[in-house]
């Protein structure tokens, strides 16, 4: 957009919004316009909320989750099962598992997957802290809840090797047909895995 | 998401982001996570930009545009052709025409279209100020650049009737095949209009 049409403050807002996942340049303009039209209801509250989140959010020193307190709400929840540790790649995966209420265990956020081509080796992930947690005796089971991608599975194998000396039970999420999924649309790998892990009906 | 997983500041940020056009609850969570991961690069600048925009943006008292000054940059640009006035429904349409560099005239933002069922009558739109501008003698042509929807065309007819007594020339945008468009995918109305308004090649 030519510089003359909107002031630099608006231009800056559009530019920052366009860097959000899911918003391109066009939808960022639309979002900025929507915000400015609802200045009192949306733009000012968003400015405050963003400032408050920026001031209060930190990385949990125990598990790597993002929260407004440290240790995070999950780590400091006394009702959680301290014997189960769910290893995830990313905070978004932790949120997804929490939404699904899939576990009452605690989490460990790796912060990514092993990806040598991108320069991400074991030292770039939260692996040493995982090793420390696995060795403190409280944890009985580590569930590898990583993505079913090549990188995720590589990372899962690395973690399994790393934890080989400990007496922690290591499990991974089941592969199979997604609930609501249609067989015709599933890939061969998923179908083969679902067939192999079939269960009594 | 259960209240326990993320703090209220994060919850509030997600909730506000989910009200942006183009972002649903899921993508709002993803956007919030992305912002928090890049706190220094994205979340804090966004908080500042939103606060600055909220503090500086106002509606132009002349044309209804949103800008950081009043009159807006378009209205106060001396190089603009003061004899041409482009009537648009919304600020987004003004921006679109400016991006396309479609005109060197000035604008008048109606702020919507006539829609009796939604309670939007002539008094809810910036029509009286349009009448005043049309009568001040400087404007020779008013271009109705409203959407080619039923509401847009109804509004265009209303504006034409309203301006009938003035000696301003009233025009509207051409209907036709969009540049890059394929005939097979166009609706009948567009094809008929394009045929009717065919031009020498």
UniProtKB/TrEMBL annotation, chains A, B:
InterPro entries: DNA_Rcmb_RecR (IPR000093), Rcmb_RecR (IPR023627), Rcmb_RecR_Znf (IPR015967), TOPRIM_dom (IPR006171), TOPRIM_RecR (IPR034137)
Keywords: DNA damage, DNA recombination, DNA repair, Metal-binding, Zinc, Zinc-finger
GO BP: DNA recombination; DNA repair
UniProt GO molecular function: DNA binding; zinc ion binding
Zinc finger residue extent: C4-type: 60-75
KW Zinc (keyword) present: yes
Pfam families assigned to the protein according to its UniProt record, in alphabetical order: RecR_C, RecR_HhH, RecR_ZnF, Toprim_4
Gene3D superfamilies linked to this entry: 3.30.60.80, 3.40.1360.10, 6.10.250.240, RecR Domain 1
All residue ranges annotated as the Toprim domain in the record: 83-178
Domain of life the protein comes from: Bacteria
Similarity annotation: Belongs to the RecR family.
Function as written in the Swiss-Prot or TrEMBL entry: May play a role in DNA repair. It seems to be involved in an RecBC-independent recombinational process of DNA repair. It may act with RecF and RecO.
Protein name per its UniProtKB record: Recombination protein RecR
Gene behind the chain: recR
